[in-house]
């Protein structure tokens, strides 16, 4: 983790839908890491995620309400609020030193703030490919009709 006295990244507040789980975080590279994924879980949950280093998230309330979900290789750790069911963050399989954080949980942010979000190819995980690495499967686009 970066020394607190020299870390100029903003601290964000975040929470699940019901507010039981609350946490603070710093993003690794602002919202530039925004992405979706087309693996079986991400396809169903539909969240836009951004990255935070493991040491840059602090659960400030409701840690006992977090529920862990793991599947397939059981390497990634997906956390949900046990009361409202909202996905909050997950420890990434592709970058185990980082969390993917649900943008919709971050105060003042929405997945609809992004006009275009890359969709990572997750049907074959980057760690399981012959040539490892991220691959963009497509793009999600949003254009507001509000003036």
CA gyration radius, whole angstroms:
15 Å
Distance between the termini: 42 Å
CATH topology: Metal Binding Protein, Guanine Nucleotide Exchange Factor, Chain A
Number of helices: 1
- Give the strand content: 25-35%
Helix fraction bin? under 10%
Mean pLDDT, nearest integer? 91
Spatial strand order of the main sheet: 4-9-8-7-6
Number of strands: 11
Q: Biggest β-sheet: count, sense, barrel? A: 5 strands, antiparallel
Number of domains: 1
CATH class (first level) name? Mainly Beta
What are the low-pLDDT stretches, counting only 5+ consecutive residues below 50?
none
CATH architecture: Beta Complex
Give the SSE string: EEEHEEEEEEEE
Pfam family, one: GFA
Family: Belongs to the Gfa family.
Keywords: Metal-binding, Zinc
Domain CENP-V/GFA: 12-128
Indicate the topology:
Elements: E1 12-15, E2 22-25, E3 36-37, H1 40-45, E4 49-53, E5 57-61, E6 66-69, E7 77-81, E8 87-91, E9 98-102, E10 116-120, E11 136-141
Parallel strand pairs: 3-10
Antiparallel strand pairs: 1-2, 2-5, 4-9, 6-7, 7-8, 8-9, 10-11
């Amino acid at each position: 983790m970066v020394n607190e006295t020299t870390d100029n990244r903003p601290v964000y507040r975040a929470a699940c839908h019901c507010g039981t789980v609350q946490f603070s975080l710093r993003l690794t590279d602002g919202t530039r890491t925004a992405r979706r994924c087309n693996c079986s879980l991400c396809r169903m949950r539909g969240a836009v995620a951004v990255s935070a280093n493991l040491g840059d998230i602090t659960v400030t309330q409701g840690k006992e309400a977090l529920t862990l979900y793991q599947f397939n290789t059981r390497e990634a750790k997906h956390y949900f609020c046990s009361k409202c069911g909202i996905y909050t963050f997950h420890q990434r399989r592709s970058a185990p030193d980082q969390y993917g954080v649900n943008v919709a949980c971050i105060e003042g942010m929405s997945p609809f703030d992004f006009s275009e979000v890359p969709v990572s190819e997750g049907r074959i995980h980057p760690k399981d490919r012959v040539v490892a690495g991220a691959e963009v499967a497509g793009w999600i686009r949003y254009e507001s009709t509000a003036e």
